[in-house]
């Protein structure tokens, strides 16, 4: 028992990381059951927690807006996600509003993120490297569908 206590004292960061991973996965599962708003919430939380994903989202927006023929999209300036929280009044509305701003860029972002993740985490044989986990927002069941976007649009209006 002393060895275990000693190991825990020497590496509290590892326990914290494992706990956060468990909590995050469990929290994600709970939120996913709550429909389209929660599906976007999970996406926003995961992207906001990663500088890599946030930067990639902004780069995708910059490229897509430059290549677009749509005058509105050409004027678009890259933005990050907005995450709702329990203590800020109307934060869910702000999150939905930003989701709708990001909608034109969502599929391109997910495709690019998926390609980059696979490039880094798949072996030459196409297997996932040991210890690698596909981000929640890249899993097919967690991706926004046309129906999800319709629900967000209806809630916003």
Automatic annotation (TrEMBL):
Official protein name in the record: Restless transposase
Lineage: Eukaryota, Fungi, Dikarya, Ascomycota, Pezizomycotina
